[in-house]
Write a structure and sequence with these properties.
The chain is mainly α. 66% of the residues lie in helices and 0% in strands.
Length: 59
């Protein structure tokens, strides 16, 4: 089965760009996510972490 898929993919013109694009999208997404996480304010993280412990508010 893999041979059929491989043969079909080899006949498509310019198919080599898709693995490069997918790796680039993956890399940019996770670098951006990492930058967002590390730039998040510590006070906001502490406030959000206390939400499950509040028992006087009903959502």
């Amino acid at each position: 089965m893999f041979e059929q898929i491989k043969h079909n993919m080899e006949t498509i013109e310019g198919v080599a760009i898709y693995p490069i694009l997918s790796l680039l999208i993956f890399f940019v997404f996770f670098v951006g996510l990492g930058l967002w996480v590390f730039s998040y304010k510590k006070e906001t993280i502490n406030e959000l972490s206390q939400i499950p412990l509040r028992d006087n508010q009903i959502v």
